């Protein structure tokens, strides 16, 4: 039930996320600050702050895997990075904002270097984000991955 509701919300967000020129400048600043905060949290290996970037039941969409709702998978992925003192950063290339400014889609790339585990990867991600008070929360996290060049 929760997964079906998350998938429905994800589809609705994609369909309603259209650029709004009047809001773009302010929201781009918000999303840039969000991205910077994300990278600071990753560098500090702060699991609690990392999970606070998400809503309570985000949809995690990994390649060749069924979508999973909840914080268990993002906690495990970030926990693996932190446990191995890996480096993880991301940047965004595009964003789209719903007309009412309540939802956004952020698309970009990421780099992961987890030397202790022999993992060096790059990829593309897509976040569906929802307004959460004055900030944003990730409601869907979709990504692909390939070996770093």
Explain what this protein looks like in three dimensions:
The chain is an alpha+beta fold. It contains 4 helices and 7 strands, in the order αααββαβββββ. The chain has helices at residues 2-16, 21-44, 47-51, 72-83; strands at residues 54-61, 68-69, 87-97, 103-114, 119-132, 135-143, 146-147. Strands 1, 2, 3, 4, 5, 6 and 7 form a 7-stranded mixed β-sheet that branches. It is globular, with a radius of gyration of 15 Å. The chain starts with a helix and ends with a strand. The relative contact order is 0.21. The model is unreliable at 15-20 (pLDDT under 50).
What's the topology here?
Blueprint: H1 2-16, H2 21-44, H3 47-51, E1 54-61, E2 68-69, H4 72-83, E3 87-97, E4 103-114, E5 119-132, E6 135-143, E7 146-147
Parallel strand pairs: 1-6
Antiparallel strand pairs: 1-2, 3-4, 4-5, 5-6, 5-7
What's this entry about, in short?
The chain is built from four helices and seven strands, in the order αααββαβββββ.
Profile the largest sheet.
7 strands, mixed
Structural class of the helix and strand makeup? alpha+beta
Give a count of the beta strands, DSSP E runs of length 2 or more. Answer: 7
**DSSP strand content:** 35-45%
User: What is the H/E string?
Assistant: HHHEEHEEEEE
Given as residue ranges, the uncertain stretches (5+ residues, pLDDT < 50) are: 15-20
Cα gyration radius (Å): 15 Å
Q: Report the principal-axis shape.
A: globular
Helices, by number, come to 4
Our measurement of the CA-to-CA distance between the termini, rounded to an integer number of angstroms, reads: 40 Å
Helix content: 25-40%
Oligomer: single chain
**Mean pLDDT value:** 85
């Amino acid at each position: 039930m929760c997964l079906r509701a998350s998938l429905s919300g994800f589809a609705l967000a994609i369909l309603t996320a259209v650029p709004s020129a009047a809001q773009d400048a302010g929201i781009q600043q918000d999303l840039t600050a969000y991205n910077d905060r994300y990278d600071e949290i990753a560098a500090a290996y702060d699991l609690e702050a990392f999970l606070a970037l998400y809503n309570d039941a985000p949809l995690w969409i990994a390649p060749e895997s069924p979508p999973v709702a909840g914080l268990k998978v993002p906690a495990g992925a970030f926990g693996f990075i932190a446990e191995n003192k890996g480096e993880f950063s991301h940047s965004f290339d595009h964003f789209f904002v719903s007309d009412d400014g309540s939802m956004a889609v952020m698309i970009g790339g990421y780099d992961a270097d987890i030397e202790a585990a022999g993992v060096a990867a790059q990829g593309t991600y897509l976040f569906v984000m929802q307004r959460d008070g004055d900030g944003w929360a990730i409601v869907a996290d979709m990504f692909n991955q390939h070996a770093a060049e």
